[in-house]
Amino acid sequence: MLQKYSRYLLAFLFVIPLFQGCKKDTVIPPDPYYREYFTAEAGQYIIYQCDSIVFDDFTGTIDTFRFKIKEYYESEFIDNSGRNAIRIERYKQIENASNWVLKDVWQVVKTDLQVEKVEEDVRMIKLIFPVVDEKEWNINALNDLGARTVAYKDVHSPYSTETLTFDSTITVENIDPQNLINEYRDTEIFAKGRGMVYKRFVNVEYITPPAVGIESGVVFTMQAIEFGQQ
Fold this sequence. Notes:
YmcC-like fold
């Protein structure tokens, strides 16, 4: 009887390694909500090349300003609603300068369903999840600026700046209709695993009739040129 149990024990011990050898490595499935289009953690930073063109109808001049903005995710904290948030220190470097000057402090909260960013004390819903092409939402739902509808487009599309290439991006843009009198257009592009990599803001009045040029207003662009950790 003892020999019989010994044979069973040996067979059992032999089978265990076989099962262990057949065990597959754990594979983390992709997030069906595509939350990876906004990733932020304390210590990381993004540097943007910025260009601002100001059209002054009073003086008839066009002024161009070129500078860099560095967004540094400085630290994590608990906001007034008890949620995990990140403090963003924004530094400005004027053209041909070497030093960075603290410009302002923003904050961001990423939840399972959306990304809220406080810019100049104004809280906006920058992204919503899941990411779906042509999905719309009110970016000003959490402030008193009045409703403004934005929508996703070019979902999961490649995109390149002057210096960087991204395999998968999404675009968020307001859906205000175009006309020949004025234009208000805010476009932001987010890359998977990187966050916002491009922004173009247009708020202009056109020379009419017809719309042959810009009479007054501003055109502002930001392009990511560097990512890092500090």
